[in-house]
Amino acid sequence: MKLLNRDVDYAARALVFMARANKPTVSVTQMQETVGVSRPFLRKTMQKLHKAGILQSVKGKGGGFALARRPETITLAALVAALQGPLKLNDCVFRKKICRNHGACLLRHKIAAIETRMISEIEGITIRDLI
Q: Model pTM?
């Protein structure tokens, strides 16, 4: 099981590149080599981040993407939410359906506590921290 998928990994790399570049806009072509992913895949990822309000898209000559917020306000959790959906470790490990013991299952409660700590840690990591 991977905690963070490749989209989140590439997005974090791209946003770090953008923050370091300190330019009004950065094109996908400029990011591509540093991030290490194909241009179409990176463009698709950047468009998802634009839709989530993490990036701004600038069209036309000299266009590209720009951070919509300061790097210290963009968290790893925001990238995860935009590209993976909610982090969830708390599915039942014994059956595919939720069983009658769902509310009283001790394993489920222990995993929920781990999940809460994990999410808290991920919310504390910002793009600024990764620069």
A: 0.82
Domain over 6-86+126-130 is classified CATH 1.10.10.10: yes
Q: Tell me the backbone φ, ψ of residue 32, rounded to 5 degrees.
A: -50, -50
In the block, tokens 């917020």 appear at 69
CA distance 50 to 63: 14
CA-only gyration radius of the chain, Å: 18
In sequence order, the 6+-apart residues with CB closer than 8 A to the CB of 97 are none
User: pLDDT by residue (tens digit) across 1-29?
Assistant: 567 889 999 999 999 999 999 888 999 98
CA distance 68 to 26: 12
Domain extents for the chain? 6-86+126-130
Separation CA 85–CA 78 (nearest Å): 10
